[in-house]
């Protein structure tokens, strides 16, 4: 990321699709970009058919001219390897490259993403277009980064994929007996006697074997990673100093981003917050924190966001004035060094004609484009933030394998979901201005005063042991319901639960009991609160009972427990407390950990986060607020001094640098 921001400051730009426009528009684009402060554009994401109109025949002339034009205007190019949308000739000549769904139906071209990730031919053709692009543009002065594919997430159930799945399983299990054991195939007469019988989880009459499904998720994610690595290696061999990225989609279930993250040079994300939802600011913040986690604490790039409405929801609300700026600055506050958009100029044709852009259909003489320009200029004033970290003393653990294993058919309740649990625990920290890092289950936790595990249904022995060691070494741990339930084969860990954590928790359970309605609970001080959907029959094995169930069959039984273990403290939450109760819980565990928010007092709706020495305050609420600030500072966005407090209108942002730093 540093090589990109050095000399440029924060990156600002978007997807640029000049192939949709006559060349006379390009010149105008370049000038408008320069005027708006654009310094990075992503080119060629969907250009394969233009670049290779028939197998092996390349047409690079137009792209040469685009890249030259960008170089002349001082705009860096994030050049895409166009593998996300193969040309029709690929599927037409070689239908086996087209993906097949669970029901055995082949999906056609005419849209995008129509490829089988395991197709040898698709993989070969991907490598050949990547090689051709890398050879041609390796030394081009505009080239600043490579963008492989787009939003990886494709899945295919065809016979070639089945073969690749079997090869992957052989590698994992060695022999069929081990596979049969791991998949628990004595259940429902599923024992495999020949490798040829093993297939992907295709459409079947009833619930499919959960371990088969879990391995399928692992395999599919791995195939996409293998495809990414093939392109990356070609690019790295030719341009070792040019960073390589692919754009993520936040909490996207199909791809284990922890496995991808270390394989790329820059972590980038596409973010389209749901307009008007009360939890959107927190959810977006959480997604940004995930990206920072994926980037190992280093800056990341917001590759795509929208200036206004998207076109793919049922009813596409526009963003009110000031909203896209607020969202962009939220990403800066949480560690983004680049703020890019989909897309530069709104398309006249194609499936995304009604998607907002940086230059709308009405042209540059519009309020929207004026706001884009202004935002580009103001980002220059934040150049000093580039490269700065967002320090956090709290970690939240989130893992894809556990997510996959949890959210399958045939479980006690589908109301307990991985990302919802994570978000509900995150919200009270967000509201108090406590920064949180999102980390994987095998993370090094030693730097954190508090570790929250909202749900970890699947946990490996080593990760469970690390959580235990963390507490005994002095950490504060919070574990949410239905955690530690299965092992990496998705087999239930027998005995009182959560089996691998019950010692450190000083508590254990014997039944998971989904509830028919709201669950009445009571804190140790007597105050009542409500939980939802989920209860567990628990007992203390040494832990103090902090809250108990207050009604129904579980009345008087423990709901939340706290246990001193070694030098630390471990909490277990055996229900799904509502927002107020989670806020109280957050207060108590933060007190245990000795962690507080960046400000003592934060009005509702205001997000506060420190990046480097700059304190960002963002008003997501609908009213003007007065935010008390401890130290005098200068608002980098306006240049105005601030002392005692700042006043923020709805959607306003302050980026306060402490005054002492001026000296
Ligand atoms: C992204 C995608 C872009 C564009 C955008 C529209 O998911 O990467 O190509 O389709 O959505 O919101």
Automatic annotation (TrEMBL):
<feature type="active site" description="Proton donor">
    <location>
        <position position="151"/>
    </location>
</feature>
<feature type="binding site">
    <location>
        <position position="116"/>
    </location>
    <ligand>
        <name>Zn(2+)</name>
    </ligand>
</feature>
<feature type="domain" description="Glycoside hydrolase family 42 N-terminal">
    <location>
        <begin position="15"/>
        <end position="381"/>
    </location>
</feature>
<dbReference type="InterPro" id="IPR013739">
    <property type="entry name" value="Beta_galactosidase_C"/>
</dbReference>
<dbReference type="InterPro" id="IPR013780">
    <property type="entry name" value="Glyco_hydro_b"/>
</dbReference>
<dbReference type="Pfam" id="PF08532">
    <property type="entry name" value="Glyco_hydro_42M"/>
</dbReference>
<feature type="binding site">
    <location>
        <position position="158"/>
    </location>
    <ligand>
        <name>Zn(2+)</name>
    </ligand>
</feature>
<dbReference type="InterPro" id="IPR003476">
    <property type="entry name" value="Glyco_hydro_42"/>
</dbReference>
<feature type="active site" description="Nucleophile">
    <location>
        <position position="304"/>
    </location>
</feature>
<comment type="similarity">
    <text>Belongs to the glycosyl hydrolase 42 family.</text>
</comment>
<dbReference type="GO" id="GO:0046872">
    <property type="term" value="F:metal ion binding"/>
</dbReference>
<dbReference type="GO" id="GO:0006012">
    <property type="term" value="P:galactose metabolic process"/>
</dbReference>
<feature type="binding site">
    <location>
        <position position="112"/>
    </location>
    <ligand>
        <name>substrate</name>
    </ligand>
</feature>
<keyword id="KW-0862">Zinc</keyword>
<dbReference type="InterPro" id="IPR013738">
    <property type="entry name" value="Beta_galactosidase_Trimer"/>
</dbReference>
<dbReference type="GO" id="GO:0004565">
    <property type="term" value="F:beta-galactosidase activity"/>
</dbReference>
<dbReference type="Pfam" id="PF02449">
    <property type="entry name" value="Glyco_hydro_42"/>
</dbReference>
<dbReference type="InterPro" id="IPR017853">
    <property type="entry name" value="GH"/>
</dbReference>
<keyword id="KW-0326">Glycosidase</keyword>
<keyword id="KW-0479">Metal-binding</keyword>
<protein>
    <recommendedName>
        <fullName>Beta-galactosidase</fullName>
        <ecNumber>3.2.1.23</ecNumber>
    </recommendedName>
</protein>
<feature type="binding site">
    <location>
        <position position="150"/>
    </location>
    <ligand>
        <name>substrate</name>
    </ligand>
</feature>
<dbReference type="InterPro" id="IPR013529">
    <property type="entry name" value="Glyco_hydro_42_N"/>
</dbReference>
<keyword id="KW-0378">Hydrolase</keyword>
<dbReference type="GO" id="GO:0009341">
    <property type="term" value="C:beta-galactosidase complex"/>
</dbReference>
<dbReference type="Pfam" id="PF08533">
    <property type="entry name" value="Glyco_hydro_42C"/>
</dbReference>
<feature type="binding site">
    <location>
        <position position="312"/>
    </location>
    <ligand>
        <name>substrate</name>
    </ligand>
</feature>
<feature type="domain" description="Beta-galactosidase C-terminal">
    <location>
        <begin position="605"/>
        <end position="657"/>
    </location>
</feature>
<feature type="binding site">
    <location>
        <position position="156"/>
    </location>
    <ligand>
        <name>Zn(2+)</name>
    </ligand>
</feature>
<feature type="domain" description="Beta-galactosidase trimerisation">
    <location>
        <begin position="392"/>
        <end position="595"/>
    </location>
</feature>
<dbReference type="InterPro" id="IPR029062">
    <property type="entry name" value="Class_I_gatase-like"/>
</dbReference>
